[in-house]
Design a protein that fits this description.
- Two copies of one chain form a homodimer.
- Chain A has 352 residues and is an alpha/beta fold.
- Chain A folds into two domains: 120 residues, Alpha-Beta Complex (Aspartate Aminotransferase, domain 1); 220 residues, Type I PLP-dependent aspartate aminotransferase-like (Major domain) (Aspartate Aminotransferase, domain 2).
- Chain A has eleven helices and 13 strands.
Chain lengths: 352, 352
């Protein structure tokens, strides 16, 4: 604590990202990274762009990337906003739309950055408990609010809401912005981007960190009606005019173009997830049905924290959250087939 | 305007960056980019790092880069903060230290993003007029304040305060944070980093966009006492955990290492600046003595706006600010010798 800090900074409780170990001998199943590398076309495009042009500022409007995203989702260019990872996009969305009289609503168990943004921007919030089965009960959101946000599929549970459920919520909630954070949507869910034309208050957030294998490049996007995108642009140009560097822009554009590679790696992750889930069921693990690139599992007998530590000793990193309601679970990112075989074997020794 | 926008976003007046034309036939003297490419070692390091590791998140703490910057400036690692360009670093510094009861102080003519941050974070400010000669009169800052910020050398004037002057200010002003924004310091000024050990309230901001030829990579830094750096880390981890991507981190580290290249390109820019200033003096231009990589010039007869338009017609871009007190001036980035010869020849035809 310093006497020079503003009151806001004194009261922050910053987000704590998953461990990024410096040495490479871990099987890293703790931060939901994709086990497959980015498309070879992405690597080639970045290398080709690594030249003297780095002395120049990037395009502050990121037009090429917006066009690529718009084309992929069949949207207009001005329905797309991009930022330095979906975390920055979310932060700007919070100040642009959620700083209102009424509190915003989000699940008690969800991406833990949401509450951090609320403190940072002094936004009131109410956390709505998930059901005992970790379901988002949308009728609980039918109350006055300054905005609604949820991750779909949710994190760290992996549970999905259907498009019909989201549409029903939007029909009930027309006076505040609804943000659907689809970081994991490509691993089995249906995107709410399809609803953008019908609702002036819907914003959908994507990231290239998971399904596009580009966590290291920091690219996120928001898609929604032009008026909401305009609001985000105003906020962005009051914070940082050039959030995406030249190489991130080039790499992201190429990642969007290589749909074939993208689909094949997503398919592999889904297959490995289903195999892993089946194997863990054989070992008596209980789990939430996942449509993400991770699974959320507990063992009926051995505490999650114990398993977490024992796995770490065997150089396998998973994520354990020491928080009410979820401290019996491990969140396990889906790795390669080989990673998951090693993981299942390790667990097998621990529980038998 | 949208009914979904927060009040803050309605009232913003976003920053407007200099034009970044899509086609390449301009001599681009409008955004203070370095005319020389980044060090070849930077290019090589980035290419070498462009591989499958992009699927993984970058180091959220940016330790390697902090070590490199600390080493260059003879600081400790924990006296350095890094961000997505100095614009992001400045934004986080504003919320961390400047959101106070008293208004912050900065010059009426300076980097135009400062007032934008104040609106974004709802920070009260007073703009202190420069003298008629565009000097910062430091005695004007001896009043209760929530913080003080100035660019040194100042923008868009290029005028420098000496280290003695800054030290005198710091001795007078111990209860609020003083930020010295040294984006252009490497082109002839003396850095206030030397004073960090003596003042617990001094923060110095640097960027790799100008003197390190890396505007396209988006890397900025703050240097100061550990307590101030801690405050910035808290804010950063409440906004975006991974603001620097893997390639930016690698490139920035290598740029810091190649001091020889850095010194030689800075020297060339300074030489070209002095040549250009001498030539423009021959053409009767008046100018502010510059220690930056740009000059701020006016012609006694021909309006700056006219010169700006005529230069643009000849594919030479410079910066014109249509604002009180400075609308008689052009801000001209120092390019290569060849760029500046073309520029001087073009002006010569216009004024003769």
């Amino acid at each position: 604590m310093s006497k020079y800090w503003s009151q806001i900074v004194r009261e922050l409780e910053p987000y704590v990202p998953g461990e990024q170990p410096k040495n490479q001998h871990f099987i890293k199943l703790n931060t939901n990274e994709n086990p497959y590398p980015p498309s070879p076309r992405v690597i080639a495009a970045i290398k080709a762009a690594t030249d003297s042009s780095l002395r120049r500022y990037p395009d502050p409007n990121c037009d090429d990337l917006k066009h690529s995203i718009a084309k992929y989702h069949d949207l207009d260019h001005d329905q797309v906003f991009v930022g330095n990872g979906s975390d920055e996009v979310l932060a700007l969305a919070f100040i642009s739309f959620f700083k209102q009289q009424e509190p915003i609503l989000f699940p008690d168990i969800t991406y833990s950055f949401y509450i951090v943004y609320c403190r940072f921007f002094e936004i009131a919030c109410e956390r709505i408990p998930l059901t005992g089965d970790f379901d988002i009960s949308l009728s609980d959101y039918e109350r006055p609010n300054g905005g609604i946000i949820f991750a779909n599929p949710n994190a760290p549970t992996g549970k999905l809401l259907t498009l019909d459920e989201i549409e029903a919520l939007l029909k009930q909630n027309r006076d505040s912005v609804v943000i659907v954070d689809e970081a994991y949507i490509d691993f089995g869910g249906e995107s709410a981007v399809a609803l953008i034309g019908d609702f002036p208050n819907l914003l959908v957030i994507h990231t290239l960190s998971k399904s596009r294998s580009l966590a290291g490049l920091r690219v996120g996007a928001a898609m929604g009606p032009v008026e909401l995108i305009d609001g985000l642009e105003r906020a962005k140009n009051s914070f940082n005019s050039y959030p995406l560097d030249r190489l991130a822009l080039v790499g992201a554009v190429e990642a969007l173009r290589d749909s074939e590679y993208f689909r094949s790696t997503c398919k592999k992750v889904i297959q490995t997830r289903e195999w892993t889930a089946a194997e863990l069921t054989k070992l008596s693990f209980e789990m939430v049905p996942s449509t993400a690139n991770f699974i959320f599992v507990k063992h009926p007998r051995i505490p999650a924290e114990t398993l977490f530590s024992q796995l770490r000793e065997q150089n396998i990193l998973v994520r354990y959250f020491d928080k009410p309601r979820i401290n019996e679970f491990l969140r396990v990112t889906i790795g390669t087939d080989e990673d998951m075989q090693t993981f299942v074997q390790a667990l097998s020794r621990m529980v038998n």
